[in-house]
Write a structure and sequence with these properties.
The structure holds 2 protein chains of 2 kinds.
Chain A (H helix, E strand, L loop, with lengths): L4 H25 L15 E7 L4 E8 L5 E4 L11 E4 L4 H34 L3
Chain B lengths: L1 H24 L9 E2 L2 H11 L8 E2 L14 H33 L5
Antiparallel strand pairs in B: 1-2
Classes of the chains: A alpha+beta, B mainly alpha.
Chain lengths: 128, 111
């Protein structure tokens, strides 16, 4: 293993958690979006993390296939014949929890990075 | 001998840092089982029985209390990482002392 492998590992953790943060941001931003190119309301996006050698990576971003929320709002342009609107299957509370988890994960990796940087700096100081 | 021992200690510690960083990177990966390198066990094996320590990564099957089958705990990883960094620094200082002593011997105590 090379000296900088540890940096790479922590960086992969930061990247994966940052992508997760971004996906929660996308979900929250589209929590009320009833129109997408596919014609149906916005589907919540799910990040799947996968162990990598070394570190971690985002395996894929999937659509959450759980049913849409039905809201009764006959005045809405996208309401069906019975006056119901299909709303995205995004639950802002869940997104905030995911966002907190992702942020914490990012912070932990950033700390690990800082500790390793410090160790490397100390090794360099030995050469002075 | 002393320098060889210090060198091996540094090697184990830097490998351990990578393993712990890997645990932190996978803090939210479902079904990830944490890994560790038992530094003290390896050093003891080296000092007591003169075994050449292999930096063997061990899988830690301690139980998980999460629904995603992941048994890492960020606090534990971070404290182990801090501990490893401090030990690393200590060993580095010892190595520096060792070098200073050698220099002193080479220059016959003169500066």
């Amino acid at each position: 293993m090379s000296v900088f492998k540890g940096f790479e590992i922590s960086a992969s953790g930061m990247t994966a958690h940052r992508i997760w943060q971004e996906v929660t941001a996308i979900n929250i931003a589209n929590a009320e979006t009833t129109r997408t190119p596919s014609g149906e309301p916005f589907r919540r996006k799910l990040v799947v993390l996968m162990q990598d050698n070394p570190g971690v990576r985002v395996f894929a971003i999937f659509d959450d296939l759980s049913p849409f929320r039905l809201v009764y709002d006959p005045s809405h342009p996208d309401a069906d014949a019975n006056g119901y609107v299909r709303m995205p299957n995004v639950h802002p509370v869940l997104e905030i929890v995911d966002l907190m988890t992702a942020t914490r994960g990012y912070d932990f990796n950033a700390q690990a990075f800082a500790i390793q940087r410090q160790m490397f700096q100390q090794t360099l100081d030995l050469l002075r | 001998m002393a320098l060889v021992g210090l060198e091996r200690a540094l090697k184990i510690l830097s490998e351990r840092t990578k393993v712990l960083a890997n645990n932190l990177a996978n803090a939210n990966t479902p079904n990830y089982i944490r890994r560790d390198i038992p530094f003290f066990t390896l050093m003891r094996a080296m000092l007591d029985r003169n075994e050449k320590p292999l930096t063997n990564v061990q899988v830690d099957f301690s139980p998980f209390f999460r629904t995603d089958g992941n048994n890492t705990s960020p606090e534990k990883e971070l404290s182990s990482l801090t501990e490893t960094a401090l030990l690393y620094r200590t060993v580095l200082q010892l190595a520096a002392k060792e070098f200073a002593q050698m220099r002193s011997a080479v220059t016959e105590g003169r500066r």
